[in-house]
Amino acid sequence: MKLVLLSGGSGKRLWPLSNDSRSKQFLKVLVNEDGEMESMVQRVWRQLNAARLGKSSYLVTGAAQLDILYSQLEDRSRIIIEPERRDTFPAIALAAVYLYSVEGVGLEEVVGILPVDPYVDVDFFEKVIELEDMLQETGADLALIGVKPLHPSEKYGYIVPEEQREHAQSHMNVNFFKEKPSELQAHELIQQNALWNCGVFAFKLGYLIDRLIGSGYPIQYEEMIKQYGLLPKISFDYEIVEKASYTIVTPYDGPWKDLGTWNTLTEEMKSNLLGNAIVTEDSLNTHVINEFEIPIAVIGLSDIVVAASPDGILVADKSKSPRVKDILKDNIQRPMYEERQWGDYRVLDYKPCWEGHEVLIKKIRITAGKGLNYERHLLRDETVIVVSGTGEFTLKGITNIVRSGDVIQIPAGYEHSLKASTDLEYIEVQKGDQLLENDSVPIDIQMLKL
């Protein structure tokens, strides 16, 4: 059995910590068994290895999340990169074609699909493994896992099975699906033995390959990459699951939670304070997550969450915190914090200046032994001020040691790179007519030597 984890989205309900680059699954607010902070994606990958599924698991993501994935996961060999962000049907189709044409996976192999951030115990993945036998035994097109609801909820989709037979079965035939009903409708669905749709399902690889062929889509990976932008922006549920002739579902009665909102995420945090914060004793069930060095104080306020990052500050009643997504739907802002495979950066200030010029100031940290690519920028000049640590700075082929207090000028068009000998922190001031993150032209050092 092969597993494909879907990693996408921006997770606006966890603003301001989450943004278009740092989605909810990358927030390091959970604690592992060793007492270390970890993200949701790190937790799930650790659990997959514990369930002996790590070597057969793949992860689909967009290019914008690649750096942070490389930073958080040591195993990078099975990451499938979407050419552009679309929806779950294109993402799963890309993964299926990769397994078929690149990995040489047989058409009878069962493929399981799951989100990258479910909050579950390791036992949940044993349930995922059971989907393989269910497909083989029943000949169903698709096998799903449905979570037994704890209460009527408007947040989840529902899987409604056909009327169950007298004898308990490990699975049931699916009658229909209902996407995010009202609380009253959810109550009625639960009376019909409906299950929460947790986004976990399985199929034989050949089933999806046949569907792709029937729709005229390529089944060779390189060609799929070329035509990826032509695939419809549609969910796998709408394009495949709800059109399947024979679908089964197996109930799961163990712990499962979607940590997609501040009220659910804080329930699983081991501490109510992360970062520099003070909360008075009469502030009950209050959580503060502070990424700034300046302190935050909360006095006499209960059942709230305070989250502060370079992207903004949120103060919200926990029960009403999911509304942040609607409030920010028209807010367009570049990410002010990004985690990269070499370290991270925070935007300290940005402003338009004279005659159309722009100035952007960043605080950048590079981990010891890592460094930035040899590259040049076409649209901006840079000034680098080393705050702490040591490293090797290369400018137009000449390398020098840099340390705390050094100031470096990098005119537009000059090839340069920086490698950290120890953990290195510096301030970078960018000046130019247009400041873009992708204003970087990589230089092949080997070609320069020819």
Automatic annotation (TrEMBL):
Gene3D superfamilies in alphabetical order: Jelly Rolls (2.60.120.10), Spore Coat Polysaccharide Biosynthesis Protein SpsA, Chain A (3.90.550.10)
Alphabetized Pfam families for the sequence: ManC_GMP_beta-helix, MannoseP_isomer, NTP_transferase
Membrane-crossing residue ranges in chain numbering: none
InterPro entries reported in the protein's UniProt record: Man6P_isomerase-2_C, ManC/GMP-like_b-helix, Mannose-6P_isomerase_type2, NTP_transferase_dom, Nucleotide-diphossugar_trans, RmlC-like_jellyroll, RmlC_Cupin_sf
Example GO BP: GDP-mannose biosynthetic process
Domain Nucleotidyl transferase: residue ranges: 4-270
Domain of life, per lineage: Bacteria
Gene Ontology MF term list: mannose-1-phosphate guanylyltransferase (GTP) activity
Chain ranges of the Mannose-6-phosphate isomerase type II C-terminal domain: 340-443
SUPFAM superfamilies in UniProt: Nucleotide-diphospho-sugar transferases (SSF53448), RmlC-like cupins (SSF51182)
Stretches assigned to the MannoseP isomerase/GMP-like beta-helix domain: 290-329
Protein name stated in the entry: Cupin domain-containing protein
Organism whose genome encodes this protein: Cohnella terricola
